Amino acid sequence: MKKILLREYGSVDVLFERYEALPTIMENQLVVKLAATGVNDVDVAIRKNGFPATVLSKKKLPHSLGHEFSGIVTQVGKNVTKFKVGDHVIGLNPLDTYSENIVIDENAIIDKVPKELDLIPLGGLLVAALPAWSAVILEGKVKANQRVLIHGGAGGVGSMAIQFAKNAGAYVITTARARDKEYVESLGADEVIDYQNEDFEELVKDVDLVVHLVDKNTQDKSFSVIKSGGKLMSPSVVPDQEKAEQYNVEAKFIRGDTSSETRASIIDLYSNNKLSIHVDKIYPFSLEGVKTAHTDFEKGPNRGKKIIKFDE
């Protein structure tokens, strides 16, 4: 089987292709033939600079990249009870989804999905959806009629956060480029601020929650638009607790919740057409395809998800 790995950290030219034997499994493991994997900030950042402090799981070179996947179960160990050959699945397999096949424990982050769903967009669901769910639902605790400001609404996490907040009944404000106005409105945004030409501090006040997905400067400025007792949730930058105290705001750096309950809620919304994944572009699983996907991701702007598709 084909894998794409890193020989060192740097430009896309550090990526290389290698063929390995098909994986063998233990009694509680299964083999998944991958259908798709998403391109994410963490993959590009690790490829360029190695592991940031926020990444808990580190590997030695050479290692692969990729975190999320969709695919079909092709083999199960004799003690596996939750899955069978032919099941369509999605999951997380950190730093090992640039591979035609993966081995994963049945109790890892992997879930069955209905077979009628297209596996290609589903390969880009979890890395964006899990932190968005944590920010909006688990930690943000958004309720109907609350006001939510989402910075970077056109990106992968932002597009999910808009939909989760809207499903919860909130009034959703988001910052985006002017070119993305119609797109974020289609996701449910009630108000769109063109951050390149408008100052959100002048246009927004008394929000219950800020979901911060961009730079530190924007985060620091966001405290002033949150009502006293409100919240700021960020999976991208650790919030300044002195500012949080100054403005009487609960501010947290969050990671995506990976519990089975959260995953089931997200899959249920998607299966019932209450959640969509916008696929910006699809790339073939080849060395040049992966290089191009990374290059395009770095150039931006990124609307929704870029997906690497494996051969059928």
TrEMBL record:
Transmembrane intervals: none
Species of provenance: Secundilactobacillus mixtipabuli
Coiled-coil segments: none
Keyword Oxidoreductase: yes
Domain of life: Bacteria
Domain Enoyl reductase (ER): 10-308
Pfam families xref list: ADH_N (PF08240), ADH_zinc_N_2 (PF13602)
Protein name per UniProt: NADPH:quinone reductase
Molecular function, one GO term: oxidoreductase activity
Keyword entries, A-Z: Oxidoreductase
Keyword Oxidoreductase (UniProt): yes
